[in-house]
Amino acid sequence: MKETATLLISCPDRKGILAEITGFIARNGGNIIHADQHIDFQKHIFFMRIEWDLENFKIPKEKIATAFSFIADKFSMKWNLKFNTETPNVAIFVSKYDHCLYDLLYRFKTGEMKGNLKLVISNHRNLENGVKMFGVDFYHFPKTKETKKEVEEKEIELLKKESIDLIILARYMQILTDNFVRQFPNRIINIHHSFLPAFVGARPYHRAYERGVKIIGATSHYVTEELDQGPIIEQDVVRVTHRDTVEDMIRKGRDLEKIVLAKAVRWHLENKILVYDNKTVIFD
Amino acid sequence: MKETATLLISCPDRKGILAEITGFIARNGGNIIHADQHIDFQKHIFFMRIEWDLENFKIPKEKIATAFSFIADKFSMKWNLKFNTETPNVAIFVSKYDHCLYDLLYRFKTGEMKGNLKLVISNHRNLENGVKMFGVDFYHFPKTKETKKEVEEKEIELLKKESIDLIILARYMQILTDNFVRQFPNRIINIHHSFLPAFVGARPYHRAYERGVKIIGATSHYVTEELDQGPIIEQDVVRVTHRDTVEDMIRKGRDLEKIVLAKAVRWHLENKILVYDNKTVIFD
Amino acid sequence: MKETATLLISCPDRKGILAEITGFIARNGGNIIHADQHIDFQKHIFFMRIEWDLENFKIPKEKIATAFSFIADKFSMKWNLKFNTETPNVAIFVSKYDHCLYDLLYRFKTGEMKGNLKLVISNHRNLENGVKMFGVDFYHFPKTKETKKEVEEKEIELLKKESIDLIILARYMQILTDNFVRQFPNRIINIHHSFLPAFVGARPYHRAYERGVKIIGATSHYVTEELDQGPIIEQDVVRVTHRDTVEDMIRKGRDLEKIVLAKAVRWHLENKILVYDNKTVIFD
Amino acid sequence: MKETATLLISCPDRKGILAEITGFIARNGGNIIHADQHIDFQKHIFFMRIEWDLENFKIPKEKIATAFSFIADKFSMKWNLKFNTETPNVAIFVSKYDHCLYDLLYRFKTGEMKGNLKLVISNHRNLENGVKMFGVDFYHFPKTKETKKEVEEKEIELLKKESIDLIILARYMQILTDNFVRQFPNRIINIHHSFLPAFVGARPYHRAYERGVKIIGATSHYVTEELDQGPIIEQDVVRVTHRDTVEDMIRKGRDLEKIVLAKAVRWHLENKILVYDNKTVIFD
């Protein structure tokens, strides 16, 4: 695998941004591998993802950020720089349902996901053996209404100690406090088992059944302080008919949840997502 | 085309219903062409659609209803009987958008829809020539808040005079009064330009854009007194990305709306829809 | 769970079949739970799946077949009778790819699949530990061109000894001989990684890439003596673009293969598939 | 509407191409609106679509091509330059089926398609009135095996006289000769009523029915000398079941064909398609 650098950039739209960025890379001998830009014409914002080969790039890795910051400042950019040789550390939160968990364990194990799955946290013990079978650490953090805040502090401590970059809520049935969420902005991905904004909150399949919908969905999104209102990363749907019971919907939904969550995680790990204005730009 | 009879039935579930219905047809020499049943095990309701060839059927057409009513009473059935030789009369309501209208005009003209499209009603005049070009009568019924009730009375009068069996709201931008709706129970089909129950009400594409969804949808449903809450007949979706503006969503949505509305209308005209409990059973 | 019986029936279409079958069940006190029929009007064949509750059914389980055979003979039916209390025995054949295998191991383990997964056969050893981790027996049957016939004999012996009812080829990279296939008619399900009949045979993703298709697919089918020509059970597709490399197609295809294969297996185990004329009728 | 210029470029991949192109636009005061690039790493080819606002662009429209040709030559580019103020001239070829034709007539009339629909050519007369109703010229060119070559010469003469840029085969049931096809490279779009490469040639729905597929498709592609083998622009699919007759497939297929063909035409008219190596890059 070639070593590459990736810049994710957003800034007010103006003339010459693209020429400036690509000029910076070209002048320094970088070979651009992927470049994708997008302009929101309503809000006049420029977005870009650009990835280039570091072989023969004249600026050493550790000095690229400084060198680029001159351009960044000129255009008032928000930006971050990642190297494909850095592997993000990942934690999964789970409760009792295991379909998304096993799906992710398999994808991390086989290398489909470019991340280092360090640990699984659960408020129950039933999935402990399954997790350990995959050679991943398991932590049991039971919670009650009364202990939630204090337990979360311990979770945060562990996550920071392990330098966790991404938290995946794989059907975690606890609502995180605002304090927790604020520690990991745009770094907690949840899977909600409905086609948001339909059926926000609890028991979406039951409510979909009651409403008599003909299609059910799943939505992966970044977690923000407002429940099920964070930036949507991916959604998908599957048909149901009058013959499908709630149990059938739950079964069909499981396959949907796995795929929608896995896509979001993969895009995040490959630095393909830019968040702005409670929306996502996906550079796929 | 063979002459056939179709029964749509719902009743409390009990043993022996299917044997009784099929026995009735077999004893009288009828050849069953389609039979589809469904049981709602939660509510213990039996549903059936059964269609049989009338050639050699021993009971004359006009006496079938009476003959069947003995069975129907025994099982407390709600039922209706239709003959494929009867063509329902159809009216379309439209405002300024014409994509669903032209799509339907084409489908009725070519015979894809088994209905007699008698007239189009609009609160504007801009589509008058287009409608007449297809040889269909056009009526202009402008409405204001003040005149709505009284104009609706004239519309109802016309619809009854023309023996209209089905009313299609092809992006009709007026909300019908409860009085109007009650005159045509399960006989008014609307197309809503969102994936219900997401984005009930006005400007769903704009709200979908604001929310940053990754899929947009359209929903056809029977109109009830509560806005966008009637029994859903069909839904479909199409992907959007961050690159799609509201205008792109509206464009993509047009194709979706046409297809979702046309499916619902076709199923209704072919007696394939049973409504119960604010849901639909589609015997497709 | 209620004990139920299911009949799968096909026969030349004639008047009165449905009345006769449902009459048989009703007369004997059976409560019909599902009934679905289909007529092929081109070939004049009648198909049916009917399932009824055995509680209070007057004919004892072991005599139902005999009792029904009088009706079956009268209408020249092909039929089979299954009880939901009987759990079919299942074997999986696999080579080196493990995505479909793990997906199935998970579904059998969690009870989503109503079958008794007794063993996995592979021509390689690399998946042995993974299979045993799930508590399933693993058999290693390496094959060469020269030994194929003789190895297959041993496989057949094992499958018969273990009373295997269904064989799943979960990306098994060996072509079975006609002799093997003939021993298990309509009881071997394969997953082919293309949208058949496009890209029959080897390396379908590579050929899809070469052809520049915009959608790739997967197909589950019963295995017959002609390669990739057996009755199709299920197909599904996923979009690709010019940005997708062959490797991306393979990755996207994996999720597709898992879902399409799992659906076919579930339908088979729930007695929902009738095969005729190299096609399937799916009573879902 | 702003006046914009669009460049479609392909060339051997090397360092600095993007910087050179964007530098050219920036230096001359152009504001880039869309920029999308793609690299085929297997064949080392660089592709780009770039669109910029001509307001304040220092090079006058008629001199842009000359100015850019210096860069183009340096990188051995194949390229073309279009202005959004130029509206391409379009001709539709049709036989007896009218669903794609009416769909396109509607889309051109309402301005959804940015093209100037100048004429319709048919080998039959049955759609003449329908076409004229939309104010479009209709030409009747009947063909037999014997007259085909000579009739095509007249068609070519007409198309050249009317400066036709794009020819749409909207279910045109005649195979064009190699001579005709060579006159309009990558400028003839056909709709084939199957999921290519499955069911190349005649009667694809009948063959799909015979094969028992569970999904049918439609494919739009540029016409090349080999039948149904040209670069695929777009494909889509719809589910079918054992209940669908050939007639049902044809009906479902009509809606598919309309949408798949319309997408391809729209992308072509908006200069979003690059053809190479018998494939397409779609800059959507």
UniProtKB/TrEMBL annotation, chains A, B, C, D:
Pathway: Purine metabolism; IMP biosynthesis via de novo pathway; formate from 10-formyl-5,6,7,8-tetrahydrofolate: step 1/1. PROSITE patterns: ACT (PS51671). One of its GO terms (biological process) is 'de novo' IMP biosynthetic process. InterPro entries: ACT-like_dom_sf, ACT_dom, Formyl-FH4-Hydrolase_C, Formyl_transf_N, Formyl_transf_N_sf, PurU, PurU_ACT. It is an enzyme of class 3 (hydrolase). Pfam families: ACT, Formyl_trans_N. The keyword Phosphoprotein does not apply. CDD domains: ACT_F4HF-DF (cd04875), FMT_core_Formyl-FH4-Hydrolase_C (cd08648). It catalyses: (6R)-10-formyltetrahydrofolate + H2O = (6S)-5,6,7,8-tetrahydrofolate + formate + H(+). The active site is at D228. The keyword Hydrolase applies. It comes from the Bacteria. GO terms for molecular function: formyltetrahydrofolate deformylase activity. Gene3D superfamilies: 3.30.70.260, Formyl transferase, N-terminal domain. Catalyzes the hydrolysis of 10-formyltetrahydrofolate (formyl-FH4) to formate and tetrahydrofolate (FH4). NCBIfam families: PRK06027.1, PurU. This is Formyltetrahydrofolate deformylase.
